[in-house]
């Protein structure tokens, strides 16, 4: 005996297969064409482009295609999306422009789910996750500033050794202060904390007369 609910679900999903097939083509094409524009060659004399903005432009193209697939030929859906977008107000500060686009993406996915386009909503979610993973995996890590203090009786004698260690680990640094018993550096580090290899080499200087050294992460202004 057939289950009416199962038959209804099968009918719903079968009717959505053409739209899903269209999305499988439309979303990648939108991502590709948006990437062509976003990564266009920079003309000489023009300002350097922000990588986060470039990534956002690519994702925005995908979101636009997703929204148009949700609208289809329905004028009512078009007005509904405009109204829903107009109601959205974000007072919180968004540092990463991709987060703002993700907000629009969730709106589009919610609208797709609300009108019963479940296959489109699922595929759109998977595709957007893939695009976000792709762009974020190629985003350079933001360097973190640390303050390095070295205490010794004659700290200037250790300055060449300390700076050699920092250069060997390809760390950017700047001597901020020097006195009779202390050196202070600002070191740019790409990880969450100083690497063990750097700390190990600095600790070896304690046997050569360095009294102490400290790392302290500096707060962003």
Ordered list of secondary-structure elements with their pairings:
Blueprint: H1 4-38, H2 51-71, H3 75-87, H4 97-114, H5 118-137, E1 144-152, H6 159-168, E2 172-178, E3 182-189, H7 196-204, E4 210-217
Antiparallel strand pairs: 1-3, 1-4, 2-3
Helix pairs in contact: 1-2, 1-5, 2-4, 2-5, 4-5
String of helices and strands: HHHHHEHEEHE
Helix count, per DSSP? 7
Instruction: Report, as a whole number of angstroms, the end-to-end distance.
Output: 69 Å
The dominant shape is elongated
Taking Cα atoms only, what radius of gyration do you get, to the nearest Å? 27 Å
Question: Strand order, biggest sheet?
Answer: 2-3-1-4
Q: Which parts are unreliable, with pLDDT below 50 for 5 consecutive residues or more?
A: none
Helix content: 55-70%
The beta-strand count equals: 4
Q: Quick one: biggest sheet?
A: 4 strands, antiparallel
Rounded mean pLDDT score: 80
The percentage of residues in β strands lies in 5-15%
> Strand pairing plus helix content: what structural class?
alpha+beta
Description:
- The chain is of the alpha+beta class and 221 residues long.
- Helix content is 57%, strand content 14%.
- The chain contains 7 helices and 4 strands.
- The chain has helices at residues 4-38, 51-71, 75-87, 97-114, 118-137, 159-168, 196-204; strands at residues 144-152, 172-178, 182-189, 210-217.
- Strands 2-3-1-4 form a 4-stranded antiparallel sheet, with helices on one face.
- A hairpin with a 3-residue loop joins β2 and β3 (182-189).
- α1 packs parallel to α5 (118-137), α2 packs parallel to α4 and α4 packs antiparallel against α5 (118-137).
- The chain is elongated and about 85 Å long.
- The termini are far apart.
């Amino acid at each position: 005996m057939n289950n009416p609910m199962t038959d209804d679900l099968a009918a719903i999903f079968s009717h959505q297969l053409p739209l899903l097939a269209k999305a499988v083509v439309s979303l990648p094409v939108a991502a590709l064409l948006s990437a062509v524009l976003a990564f266009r060659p920079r003309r000489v004399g023009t300002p350097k482009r922000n990588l986060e903005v470039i990534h956002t432009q690519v994702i925005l193209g995908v979101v636009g295609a997703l929204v148009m697939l949700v609208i289809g030929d329905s004028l009512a859906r078009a007005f509904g999306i405009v109204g829903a977008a107009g109601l959205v107000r974000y007072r919180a500060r968004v540092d990463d422009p991709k987060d703002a686009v993700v907000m629009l993406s969730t709106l589009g996915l919610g609208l797709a789910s609300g009108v019963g386009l479940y296959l489109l909503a699922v595929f759109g979610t998977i595709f957007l996750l893939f695009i976000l993973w792709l762009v974020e995996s190629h985003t350079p890590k933001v360097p973190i500033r640390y303050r390095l203090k070295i205490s010794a009786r004659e700290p200037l004698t250790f300055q060449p050794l300390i700076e050699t260690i920092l250069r060997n680990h390809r760390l950017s640094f700047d001597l901020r202060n020097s006195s009779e018993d202390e050196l202070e550096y600002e070191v740019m580090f790409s990880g969450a904390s100083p690497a063990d290899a750097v700390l190990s080499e600095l600790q070896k200087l304690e046997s050569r007369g360095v009294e102490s050294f400290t790392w302290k992460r500096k707060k962003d202004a």
